[in-house]
Write a structure and sequence with these properties.
phosphoprotein, alpha/beta, 5 strands, Sig_transdc_resp-reg_receiver, 5 helices, Bact_response_regulator
Length: 131
């Protein structure tokens, strides 16, 4: 399964990548800026995207709007250090744009919670299109 991790904090990216390594065999891509993640979506769309909502170059809501406009059909997990009300509002907005949101988690996400969300992503996984 292909996973894209988006967070501007290098420590968070490394922690998430380590957790995924412990959970199974994944092809993991990381981005520390929304623009870089959008470029990756064009070339290598992931099955699961784990996305921080608070980034310096583009906030998570704007990023998710772009992702929806691009027709992303994978699953998304939202992460944030913001209060739970903001996280839930972002989840509702992203779902209203047609994205499949598996969860909205407070940082730091636990390994158990991430494992449960990865299991959900596996169930939602769509077969890859071949050219």
């Amino acid at each position: 399964m292909r996973v894209l991790l988006l967070d501007d904090d290098p420590f968070q990216l490394a922690m998430l990548e380590d957790m995924l390594e412990d959970l199974g065999d994944f092809t993991v891509f990381t981005a520390n800026a929304a623009q870089a993640a959008l470029a990756m979506l064009q070339t290598s769309p992931p099955d699961l995207m784990v996305c921080d909502l608070s980034m310096p170059d583009m906030d998570g809501i704007e990023f998710l709007r772009h992702v929806a406009e691009e027709g992303y059909d994978g699953t998304v997990v939202l992460l944030s250090g913001m209060e739970s009300g903001v996280l839930k509002a972002a989840e509702r907005l992203a779902m209203a744009q047609g994205l499949t949101i598996l969860g909205a988690c407070a940082k730091p996400v636990s390994a158990v919670e991430l494992g449960d969300l990865v299991s959900l992503a596996r169930m939602h996984r769509r077969p890859r299109r071949t050219a």
